[in-house]
Specification:
143 residues, four-stranded antiparallel β-sheet
């Protein structure tokens, strides 16, 4: 008898840009822009290679002296799959980041796989917003 071992090359990871800049806006308008490519890589070599990537607003958008802009005013749109490898991938539906939402998923298949997408963020700025540079944190995770 001859045998051999297949070893997984890695785990399940998500990679994304460290920063993004949205369009400028006046109070009552909508700031918009793409976050840059987000990538999920699954190198677990499993018979069930499914996973779900989520997006959430972990820090509200704020500026000194202004009221925070919460996730209910922030719309996340995943966009099309880029460079898909070994799989059918499903984009989540566009919607607010009032709570964590599915960004992308893989629900079937086996072996290693990967996909990228370039999500768009739209931030509805209240008419009462003060002038300044707003910053917040959008977090992606995968399990």
């Amino acid at each position: 008898m001859t045998t051999f071992q297949v070893t997984a090359t890695g785990g399940l990871t998500v990679a994304l840009p460290t920063s993004a800049t949205l369009s400028g806006v006046t109070p009552g308008g909508t700031a918009t822009g793409q976050l840059g490519n987000v990538a999920v890589t699954a190198e677990r070599s499993l018979a069930d290679a499914s996973w779900v990537a989520t997006a959430s607003l972990t820090d509200n958008f704020t500026t000194p002296g202004g009221s925070p802009i919460t996730g209910s005013a922030v719309t996340y749109t995943p966009g099309a799959a880029i460079n898909p490898v070994n799989g059918a991938f499903t984009a989540g539906t566009a919607g607010t980041l009032a709570s964590a939402r599915t960004a992308y998923s893989k629900t079937s298949g086996s072996g290693d796989n990967s996909v990228e997408w370039n999500p768009t963020l739209d931030v509805a700025v209240p008419a009462s917003a003060v002038a300044g540079t707003y910053s917040g944190t959008v977090t992606h995770s995968v399990a």
